[in-house]
Amino acid sequence: MHCKHLNLNVEVDVLTTGALADIVNAILESLLFQRHQIPLVYKTYRYYVRKWSEEENELSEENVTSTTEFLRRQKENATKTNSSISAMKELVRKAFKNKCIKSLRFLFGSTTYTPKEAYTIHIPTEEISSNHSHEQHPMTIGNLNQTLLSLLTHPDLYTIFSSNLNPTNIYLELEISKQIIDLKTMSNAKVDIIPKEFCTLPPSCKDVQIHLLHTGNTSSSSLHCCKDLQVYKDFMDLHLEDNAATIEADSDSNKCKNILYKTNEWWEADIYIRGFKEQGSKCLNMWS
Q1: Is this prediction's pTM over 0.85?
Q2: Which of 178, 206, 236, 285 is in Cβ range 3.0-4.6 Å of 263 for a Cys bridge?
Q3: What are the structural domain ranges in the chain?
């Protein structure tokens, strides 16, 4: 098995689950284009798909020919791929919002048991701040692009990225800290995932282990910005709450957190992405 380990710095003052979801989704978008699963970079690809949807009503049924029908099928397949990408990205956002994600991996192959390439992303769970919101501490585009650039230009990945990978399926598996509450019965937290046994990768699979490292310059414990935005801040100023009870609750929460970190389960996303490749035609350009 070809196994590569690489570290990616995540430069943000406060690390939130929202920031991690953005990073994971950005890595997915980059891998889809880098591994030839979509013919254009994701944002350009998405733009054309949305443009097609707007132009659908302008087509006349009377002008349908074999050429236009061929083009229609191509666009339909491209749209399905785009829809599954959006669904997987939304699943990642929901999973990070409602679960404690230890790691996740994207599998490129015809099935989850026979992947050709696997990209496992390890999450720095101990660095995640639960006292701050992602809306107040978003990761800048510049820092996000710097993280992606360090991935795409990593010397250990040159051999993998220099080889062509034909369009295939992309699956998502998540390692989640075991919850007391059933994952499928949590209110307002429905995530389309199914439990599975962890499967080792086949010897022929190219295995890339990506370790996210938080490199923020500010200690989250010294920031009280989000805490000061609480609706009932006046009660906190008056010290009406029981400090001893709060400290004890925080202690119990940390103990529970440590226990959850030690017991993990693997889950598989119920959706997958089917790679799209444009079928050549001299008289057609579906991107024009």
Answers
A1: no
A2: 178
A3: 3-54+71-217+263-274
